[in-house]
Amino acid sequence: MELVTYSGTAADAAFAFELPATWSVDGEFSDVGGTVTVLGPDGAPLGDLSVLIAWGAECGPDCSMPPVVHLGDVPGGVPLSSSGEFVVRSVAMDLSAAPELRNAYGWSDAVRLVTSLTDADDPPPTAMLPHVMYGLGQVEAGVVAPNGITYRTVIFSSIHDFPTLEAAREYAASEEHRQIEAMIASFRA
Question: Which residue from 42, 51, 52 is spatially nearest to 20, judged by alpha carbons?
Answer without folding.
Answer: 42
